[in-house]
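Annotated sample (chain length 311).
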Amino acid sequence: MTRTDAQRAAKAHNQRRRRRLMAYGQWQPMVDAEPARQHVLRLQSGGLSVASQSAKTGVPFTTLCGLLYGSSPYPPSKRIRTETAAAILSFTPTLDDYPAGARIDSTGTIRRLRALAHMGWTSPTIGKRIPYSAPRTIEQVGRATKLTAQLARSVRDVYTELSSVAAEDMGVTPWVARRRRNYATAQGWAPPTAWDDDTIDDPNAIPEWTGHCGTDHGWWIHSTKKIPACPPCLAAHEQWRQERAGLAPADWYRAVGQARAEASNREAELAEDGRELMRLGATYETAADRLGVTRQHLQQAMRRHPEQTAA
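Output written by the structure step:
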């Protein structure tokens, strides 16, 4: 069987790359298999089978089985090819990658339901939009650590549809929506604008309430806008206080006043700049990029500082 031109080109490219890396002393044809093995096991415990991982990563099924279990009489692999490890470790599954019945982490689903509560949506109303799920099931999601991928995808689709719409605008009784919204605020649940679609399913992610969360500036925005402070901002503000503990009273109050003023005025200016860019045709993403903030921060600023119309 003769080689095709593409195969010859790929082989030549790999040979050039190998010679270049060898010349710089960076050639590692084999690496430790343990990080890749733990990654496969973590995805497997999360509901993604070895066969599914093989299909998504392009790594042969037998290679993954050898990595996990070995093959008689050989034990599990201790070292694997660099390319194989890179293909395994670079794979981060999305909700669509899981089989419908797979049991997956409920973190992202709970966050979406709580964010919808911030918009006034109630559990029974959301449950009616999921054909196979009773409203009672939706209410129980908040107490579950695992749920099916099918339910998670359904909640995600409902969230995509409703997260930018106030419940009153879709026929929900105003006092019911208001009560639900007040409850979500009292519980400290984050609204849709505090989450990014790429991180909402990550258990280690935190809501971006201010666009500066994790800094002292973020804490002052929390304070001036009466938003419950998140743990990263609390820690950053405590550090800010400790760094200024030796200031004279006059200098202390001057520093406090300056920080508060910057947090109060910056958002109003940011909201106006964002609207001006969007009048010129920019999207939320491009406007936020031009202004040097996240999309969530820009949306939060525009929501807290509505456009003032001339009398």
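Annotation: Residues 216-304 form one domain.
Annotation: The chain has a mean pLDDT of 82.
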